[in-house]
Amino acid sequence: MHSDLILVVAAQVLVISAVAAAIGVLLLRHLVCRRRVRSKGRAVLVTGCDRGVGLELAAHLDSLGFRVLAGVREPCGAGAARLQARTSVLTRLVDLDVTSEVSVAAAAGQVRRELQETDTAITDHQAMNQ
User: Which segments cross the bilayer (predicted)?
Assistant: First the structure.
């Protein structure tokens, strides 16, 4: 009987310790996640946004407020449509096949123009508010 009581108490202590450790991990995660990177006014280029990791990353960065330039192989394809359905106006599609030098050069020009438009809009907004 005495050994059964010891086992029950040991099991309870083990469960309470596991719960306390889980709460500690969640609190630590919450504190670390509060120190996010500032997204306002920042742009990111993500390749492979038609599917998989690229699509998920682009959608996540969009949800954090980043301006996402999403490289897709087929801007009129199903993957691009899925991406646009999951993101806001902060995400722009960039026709990009990273295996083609011509495509990469054209995408670089598009990205340059997109960023210049953003810079001009920010400058115009700042001038109007002074």
Answer: 6-28
Do 75 and 110 reside in the same domain of the chain?
yes
Examine the pLDDT at 44 and tell me if it is beyond 60: yes
Are residues 71 and 113 both part of a single domain?
Answer: yes
Domain that includes residue 12, residue range:
1-35
Whole-model pTM: value is 0.63
Residues 26 and 60 in one domain: no
DSSP structure string for 2-65 = HHHHHHHHHHHHHHHHHHHHHHHHHHHHHHHHTSPPP-TT-EEEES-TTSHHHHHHHHHHHHTT
